[in-house]
Amino acid sequence: MGEAKRLQSAMEYLMTYGWAILIIALVLGILWYLGVFSPQIPSGCVALPGFYCQSLVYSASLNNPTCYETPYVTANLGIYSTESWSTVLFTIVPYGQSLTDTSTNVIDEQNKDDFFYWGSLYGTYAYLPSLSSDQVASVTICINANNPLVEGQQLGVGTKLTGVIWAMYSTPTATNAVVEVAEFNTVSKQT
Length: 191
Prior knowledge:
Number of helices: 2
Strand content: 35-45%
Shape: elongated
Structural class: alpha+beta
Strand order of the largest sheet: 1-8-7-4-5
Largest sheet: 5 strands, antiparallel
Low-confidence stretches: 98-107
Number of domains: 2
Mean pLDDT: 75
C-alpha cells in the first residue's frame, strides 16, 4: 500500500509540473514566433535638433545614373538655421566603422579634411551648392563598396545599414564647418 501511494504521489508531481512546463514552453514558442525576442527596428532617419531628415531609402539598385552602378541612400534633408549654407557635402558613416585614419565615429578638426577627402575619393558623399534655412532638399549619397568607410559592409538587397549622416558646409562666418545631421537605420531595397 505504501509503495502504491508513493507512486501515485510521484505521478501527480510529474503531471502537475509537466503541464506547467508544457504551458511555459508553448507560451515561449508563441512569443518567439511573434518576434518578441528579435524586435525589428523600424527603418528611418532621426534628425538632430535644427535639422530635418525624412524619406530615407537605401537602394541596392545599380540603375541610378548619379551613382554609376553602386548602391545609394536617398533622403530629404534640411536645416532650420538663421544662416544659409553654401558648398554643402553630406556623407554617411556606418556604425562600427572608423573615419579614415582615426578609430572614432566623431568628426573633429583633426580628421574632417581626411574624412571628406576619402569620402569624395571613393564617392560616398552628396554635394549641394547651397541650402537655405527651412529648405529641404532631396539628397542622393552614393555608396562605393571600395570606400574605407563602408568596407566590410554587405551592400546587397535586404541588408541593413545603420549610421550617422554628417554635413560639411560653409557660411559667411565659418568655412568647412562639420556637423552631425541625423542617425539612420534602414534595409536595402531594389528600386
